[in-house]
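Quick log. Single chain, no ligands specified.
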Amino acid sequence: MILYHGSTVVVEVPRIIIPNRTLDFGVGFYTTANYTQAVVFADIVMKRRKQDVQYISIYDFKMEQASKTLSKLEFTGPDEDWFDFVCQNRNGTYSGCEHDIAIGAVANDKVYATIGLFESGILTKEQAIESFKVNPLYDQIVLKSDSALKLLTFREAIDPREVTE
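-> predicted structure:
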């Protein structure tokens, strides 16, 4: 399986680093199987860091082996379990089982806004979850352990602004 990671640096040797903010699926190395989503991530990171460079690091991932040997938490869509998991991670209150890999939809800016409306009591959980089903959500595959990272092999890195189709 090919995975992508968007950033302002080339990441040949991924590591799990404690972030300075709370993320959708907690601590881990964030990737996606969707190239377009990786470009969106790279652009967000570039703007956040006020830099003018971005890269898509490309990897081979042994998903079949990971599925057989590692613990995996997988969400098939934006359902109640996914919503609770994202909210708890964003709030720093997740206390459930830790997994080697977490897979599910990306909580983009629209999702964050909807979660805010839920947290302020404007939307019910059911209304919030239904609103996520209107727009497509890209995937994220978060490698949360060194065992998962060992199944990832760096291929190359590219500047997406230099890619012509």
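DSSP finds six helices and seven strands in the chain.
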